[in-house]
Amino acid sequence: AQRAMFIYLSKKIAIPNGVKLKCVSWNSEQGWIACGGDNGLLKVLKLDSSTSKAGQQSSNLSMNQTLEGHNGAVMVVNWNENYRKLTTSDQYGLIIVWMLHKGMWFEEMINNRNKSVVRDMKWTSDGQKICIVYEDGAVIVGSVDGKRLWGKELTLQLALVEWSPDGRLILFCTIQGECHIYDGNGNPMSKIALLANEGVGSSPLIGINWYDGAEGYGDHDPPTLAIGFENGRVQLMRTETDEQPILLQTGMRASQIQWNRAGTVLSVAGLQSSSDGRDLSMVQFYSPFGQHLRTLRVPGSSINALSWEGSGLRVALAVDSYIYFANIRPDYKWGYFGNTLVYAFTKPEKAEACVIFWDTKTNERYAKYVKRLVAIRACGEYCILATSGEDSGQFILILCNAIGSPVDSKYIEVEPLYITMTPYHVVAASESSVYTWQYRTLVSKLTSVDTSALNVNREKGRERVFYIDSRSTAEEPIMDGGKIRAPLGATNDPVCTVAASSKVLLVGRESGAVNRYSLPHLTLEGQHILRCRPQVMALNCTSSKFSVIDINGVLTFFDLTAVPSEAGRDASTAGVHLSFERKDVWDMRWSDDDPELFAMMEKTRMYIFRGTEPEEPVLSSGYICEFHDLQIKAVLLDDVMRSPEKPDKEHMINFETKSLRDTGILLQDVSIQDAYQFVEDNSHPRLWRLLAENSLENLNLPMADKAFVRCADYHGIQFVKRLQMLDDELKQRAEVAAYFKKFDEAETLYAEVDRIDLAVEMRMHLGDWFKVEKLVQAGAGDDSTLTLAWNNIGTYFADRQKWIKAVAYYAQAKNVEKLIDCFYALEDYPGLEKLIAMLPEGSQLLSTIGAKFVSVGLCESAVAAYLRAGDVKAAVDACVLLYQWDQAVELAEQHNFQQIEGLLGKYAGHLLEKDKKIAAIDLYRKANKHTEVASLMTQLAKTSAAAKASPLRVKMLYVLAALEVTKFRQRALIADMTTATRGTSGGSRTAAAQTLDGLMTLDQVGSENSAIEGSWRGAEAYHFWLLAHRQLYEGQFEYARRTSLVLMDYEDLLDVVDIYSFIAIACYYSKHYGRCSKAFMKLESVPGMPKETLDSYSDLATSIFVKHPPTDPASSRARKTDDISAVGGTKLILTNVCMASGRDIGAADNVQACRSCNHRSIAGELRGRTTCPLCHALYAKRISTDTFGAVSSTMGMGQSPTAPAMPKFSA
User: Fold this and answer.
1) Residue 417's closest CA among 876, 713, 2?
2) Which in 168, 353, 974, 1071 has the greatest CB count within 10 A?
3) pLDDT in tens, 600-647
4) How far, in Å, CA of 1058 to CA of 1056, rounded?
5) Is the separation of the CB atoms in 959 and 1139 below 8 Å?
6) For 1186-1207, how does the pLDDT look when each residue is reduced to its tens digit (9 = 90+)?
7) Whole-number Å distance between alpha carbons of 1041 and 1044
8) How many angstroms separate the Cα of 993 from the Cα of each of 298, 983, 985, 987?
9) Burial of residue 351, with CB atoms counted within 10 A of its CB: 0-12 exposed, 13-18 middle, 19 or more buried
10) Are the CB atoms for 614 and 608 separated by under 8 Å?
């Protein structure tokens, strides 16, 4: 999708004494130019790198040094850019390495083989190594510091050498036209298949160049290796093993080839025979895919060498005894619409193209990365990015706005080689097909968002595609899966350019024919014949003329309205190709508002034409963005692309036409009548507007009225009429100053006529509320105006998130609604809470405050706000949302809100479905649902016990469940007593009766939920289980035995095998072998016991009781329930067993009872602890130490009986 790359000769440097040049090389980093020629000529030149404000590059020499050291003709010059070295070689094989010292070049190293001539030498892309090849086949590879790395004698006649970009391969080209691949150490690998020579015989190689990827590769996988032959053929390859290279036939006797630094343009220099038999020197330029871009004719007999500047904007050519410099105007991918410049560039580290949307007014930039970008076009309010799709033959048109956001897109199968865009249409053309998309209509802003009823009828025809040789475009578009499919077939006369306006579409063809279609109906209205092949066309604002720039850079014009003088021409071929032409034109732009006005770029000059009359040229290298109101806006894209991510506003330049400049001068120097006459002769709305503004400044209202009428400015006419109605000249001047946006001057003039109110009104219209505040506080205006100013100033600060300043002004204006937002943004919740009391009850703002408190989790403040607003339901909902169920239930009870119970149950059920029992327990606890909590806790305890979890955890769960039951009992009892006390003394029921009913209700609940009632028993079971183990491990074997016997009462809660296994161990250690024997008997009688386990029990019992008879000590005191043979104990809560020691509590024991769980402990066994051993509740009164000591001494604590060694206990 090339617009038109252009190249022209710009400078010529003559070599003294007519010495012929052999080679030239341009250092792409520092800009030095080395050239070598006959008689040992070697020069280093440098062009001045300064650039004018208009983008014009300087062509003066800043360095011109002759280097002496060679005697023969210098054949090869090559730069090492990374290390700033120059390597040269002459016809006798002398090699010199030059270095820069204090701005001058000096010899650093010399090498002379004296056996053969050096044909070529190349540095690696990193500058670390150099490869030198001699004609006799000798190869030397050395390092940058002069060390010889390796050398070989090849049996080849070498002509050229090239390194691969990574430095791992070396390509050797022979005089016979072969190309051999060697590795970096000189080992042969293979040969490159040179398909360009097939069928035409062997042709010598004249150049090989491999782009090193320094500027990136883009995302099209372009060829990077170029091999040129003397017969004009060029082979382009992606890699050295590419089996499908691109083959070019340049039609020249080629002499040089070279890529530009970015690898986007390949230049091929050589000679071409003309029709009269003369040889013409020329350079042809190609894209990496072989598309011909431009041809440059060069004077002279032959081009011996060619080299690119690092920026890719100039080329140096060694022709005879001259160096020619050619300037290149690249075909950048760019567009301009509104105030936005959109352009694309590539980054070395990115495969995608980076597209920048730069607002040239605000300097804001938006970056967008696009894969396989083909072209950019812009017009009106949008731009089009054309890309290649993932699939072959698929293309995408993306419509973007000024910040790069995609607005719409279309998938097409027409390759967008040529694209144009109008405010309503996008036109894309391949060589044989044309696609149009009406993305916008006069009725709707965008067709993609048009939802009106008529849209159904208008949708047909929004997208059209037609074959270029078809005489009719009325067929329906060919749809394929939602995509428009391109018509099949090729054409003998391919499309080469397109142009469009809001009314006309032009399609140019290689033969010079131009098809003209109407828009939006796409009716073929005629065909025009040009005398050239068009490359760029453009229509003027009235579609009466179009400009043509051909492939040679010649600008001509075609008048569509003129009648041809030849007879027999019909209306379909009306129009005349005008004789006016300009050469070396690379850009052109019609004025948006004058059909005879256009601007063009000719080499480095910008010309503005009215008709065929040019104005004085202006030096510039800018690309024209727009031509409107006699002003031209251009962009220095060359400068923008040097640092594309940080464009400068100075890169945008504006030019005025001569008539605009002259009108400004005349308005200052001559009378208003003479200026009127000049504008009359050069009529344009911009000039009339300039005259009107000047007349307003001078209060020449009749002339201003005339000028506004001529430029059709209705608002200007009304403004003049309003001025004529004012009786005071100062008032008129103040209004004029305000019209020209000189507001301070207008305010001063209003003050002079004592009309500060008008100044206040002006500032209010402008939105300058700071000035309004000052003026009102100075005495102009009332309180309502001041309040309005404070509100708007507060909004100004709030929009910029300066909340503290906004609060100050909103507070002065007493704007509570805005204060709520500010306090919320500041997270000043105390300040927000104060507003609750300031607002009247029932205010809607209270609900707003409540919602904000809910969003940050402040439940109490939210409830206060909702209750003051009178919205009880919102208050309850806030509590539910923030999991404050206790407060929600309390509110519901206070305000008789029945729905809370159902909501609570529903949410708890949801948690239980997801097996989130802990969350459900927490929910019920906050809602004071003690029975539900106790039930879930008991279930968790049983589940943990079944999973063999930690006994301590199981005990804690049982205790928590039991405590919830206790809380439920206490709460119910208190509620019933409260109800009884509220009853009248004359009632039929007493408080005692009420209490009795409550207790009966509690008993009923307990009997209905036996799992809840058994929670204390579960706590006791695991408490004694833990206590017995602790006593055993502490060596208190007698205590452990007694406690273990208590466990027999909990066979329904603990595992029977575990209980009697522990009893056997405890009795064994306490030497109660009788009870130990009974425990073994119990274990052997457990139903379902595996035979292997029973055998192990029997063996263990035998080993014990052979040594110890199964009898207990005579001093042993039996418990009332000490009969091990009895299976299953009582299921009542134990109250006669000490929780601290497991002992039976005697009548004489000093006992401490727990008020929380009602379990008792012997005071002496507590040993100083002040909490209940079971539930860990705090005792009401601490037991004295003397009592502990007395009781402990009677129990004989600390005297553990000595136990025999414990045998292996496998059970």
Assistant:
1) 2
2) 353
3) 999 889 999 998 899 899 999 999 999 999 999 999 999 999 999 999
4) 5
5) no
6) 333 333 333 333 333 333 333 3
7) 5
8) 124, 12, 13, 12
9) middle
10) yes
